[in-house]
């Protein structure tokens, strides 16, 4: 969330899903263009993320992580 809020958009959306004892967490900043930094990815890995990443689409920047439950 800290990274999505730091993008400076007017709102942040959070989406959650679970499957096979794993949780997918997606934060969407609604801010177009590439992220200023991917420094949060090593932090997510240190928290136990199985996978994580960022991408950009027309609706804004997404940060996602898959965590074991």
Average pLDDT, rounded to a whole number, is 85
> Which regions have little confidence, pLDDT < 50, spanning 5+ residues?
none
Structural class computed from helices and strand pairing:
alpha+beta
The CATH class, by name, is Alpha Beta
CATH-level-2 architecture: 2-Layer Sandwich
Using only C-alpha atoms, the radius of gyration works out to: 12 Å
Describe the protein in words.
The chain is α+β, with helices and mostly antiparallel strands. It has one domain: 2-Layer Sandwich (Heat Shock Protein 90). 17% of the residues lie in helices and 43% in strands. It has a four-stranded antiparallel β-sheet, with helices on one face. The chain is globular, with a radius of gyration of 12 Å. The model has no long low-confidence stretch (mean pLDDT 85).
Annotation keywords:
69 residues; Heat Shock Protein 90; 4-stranded antiparallel β-sheet; 2 helices; 17% helix
Question: Short description, anyone?
Answer:
The chain has 69 residues and is an alpha+beta fold. The protein has a single domain (2-68), classed as 2-Layer Sandwich (Heat Shock Protein 90).
Write the layout of secondary structure elements.
Elements: H1 2-6, E1 13-19, E2 22-28, H2 40-46, E3 51-57, E4 60-68
Antiparallel strand pairs: 1-2, 2-4, 3-4
